[in-house]
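Troubleshooting log. The previous structure file for this entry was overwritten by mistake, so regenerating from the original sequence record. Sequence copied from the archived sheet and checked twice against the printout by T.R.
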Amino acid sequence: MGERKAIFITGGGSGIGRAVAQRFARAGWLVGLADVNEAGLAETAALLPDGAGWTRRLDVRDRDAWDAALAEFTQTSGGRLDVLFNNAGVAHGGPLAENPRDEIDQLIDINFRGVAYGAQAAYPYLKATPGACLLNTASAAAIYGTAGFAIYSATKFAVRALTEALDVEWDADGIRVRDLMPGFIDTPLLHGPAGRDSNVSKRERVVEAGFEWVPMEEVVESAWAAVHADKKLHHPVGKLARQAMFAARWLPGRIRKQGRGVFGAGKS
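Regenerated output below.
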């Protein structure tokens, strides 16, 4: 098995995936980048030091493609898979009664099915790599159900549940399982419309509601810390996420009221 540590990142063509790739590459890791956006993959790879990046188009909904991608990547890494970063995701909002069926299906398939497939496909490689970690991107929306973002929130709760379950299930194999729970980050996920028939973007909804943006640097350093943490399971990132963790436990009435803001019923 090779000595150079290796991380495989889905959603590596932009946003969190790109920023985390740069952080780990600077630390000398081999970085596997996967995405359906091949142009984005090439852009991310160009930002990494020579020899640090490996790319492959991957639709996380395709279980067989997962097997092929990880088999190929671990040939390059000398058999190592120190971290699988299950990061690929999509975001759609709007009242549930108005959500198109294809958007519901896409959220469930990419945000949860893709994460479960990735975890299952990566398991034998993680088990074979001492000190390995499965890192999942959840969300502050996994702390308390988010009105107007119901299906997205539900998929991130599912990621949270999977993280908790696998952290116990895989403990005997020496695999640590962790998740990130960031608040709002100004990435391409928020550039689309708040609803299918909306002229307002998701990003504009966040701004209107007065929510803070989480600096990408904070997300990246949280990812680094999560991979290297011994005990901490959930990693809320940003003021909003930390406040939500407190309020969900001690002030649920308040968080219910506040949660009606960004994509609440009646907004278009």
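The chain is about 45% helix and 15% strand. Archived copy saved in two places this time.
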